[in-house]
Amino acid sequence: MRIDILSIFPEMFEGPFHHSIIKRAMEKGLVEIQIHNIRDYALSKHKNVDDYPYGGGSGMVMMAEPIAMAIDDLKSKFTYDAIIFLTPDGEVFNQKTANHFSSFKNLLLLCGHYKGIDERIREKYITHEISIGDYVLSGGELAAMILTDALIRLIPGVLGDETSALSDSFQDGFLSPPVYTRPSDFKGMKVPDILLSGNEKLIAEWKFQQAIERTRSRRPDLLQKDDI
Fold first, then answer.
1. CA 2 to each of CA 22, 30, 78, 98, 122: distance values in angstroms, whole numbers, following the listed order
2. Cα–Cα distance for residue pair 85/105, rounded to 1 Å
3. pLDDT of the residue at 173
């Protein structure tokens, strides 16, 4: 998978993308991530990428020309399965969406800032608009990091245990069951006997029931009537 990210603050990605799972995925050659500075496509000598909104109002708007030039430049080199704009008014990101995007080969992510981007960019170039939640961030960079991390861990070969991602919360519609490790007795709190039994069938049944109970108590909105 190749992921290109357009941002006016490319340095924000240096830390998150150079550690842990994302770093290992890049070292294995399973994913390539390139960060591009939108200011490199600015038309003015001062590298301005924003201007006052037509019609008045507070804040600034990212101009169409630099973004369009950046996208056109990248599209001349690569064919993208999706061009994604990270925005609070987009479709709320979830595990189903992550699974869908993880099968794509080339993605282009656009990080907005200020009061947003010129609407004409959204109309002409954007294929998907994604929000990571019902709140507003200072820019799309953090959202792009979250989306990227969620996708990369689903790529075969990225995680050490190929089945690990399949047992994550939301993957099967439920929250994950509680997990335990050594010691078996921690300050008088013991690991459930069933997990020490070695009976794989009973353990699987216990985990399934625990997942349902945890989902029912913490996220009942995820359950269908047939589940409860």
1. 12, 9, 10, 15, 22
2. 17
3. 82
Q: What does the chain come to in residues?
A: 228
Residue 72 has phi, psi (to 5 degrees) of -60, -40
How many other CB atoms are found less than 10 A from the CB of residue 183?
Answer: 10
Measured in whole angstroms, how far is the alpha carbon of residue 49 from the centre of its chain?
A: 25
What span, in angstroms and rounded, lies between the C-alpha atoms of 117 and 111? 9
Residue type, 70: A
Q: Kindly report, residue by residue over 197-224, the tens digit of the pLDDT.
A: 999 999 999 999 999 999 999 999 999 7
Q: Give CA–CA dist 184/144, Å, rounded.
A: 39
Q: What domains appear along the chain, each with residue ranges and CATH number? A: 2-152 (3.40.1280.10), 169-227 (1.10.1270.20)
What pLDDT is recorded for position 142? 97
Residue 199 per-residue DSSP state: -
Tokens of 123: 């109309």
For the chain, percent of residues with pLDDT exceeding 90: 89
**Residue 41 contacts residue 66 (beta carbons within 8 Å):** yes
Per-residue pLDDT at 163: 54
Dist CA 70 CA 195 (whole Å): 54
d(CA 82, CA 107): 5
pLDDT tier, 161 (very low <50, low <70, confident <90, very high otherwise)? low
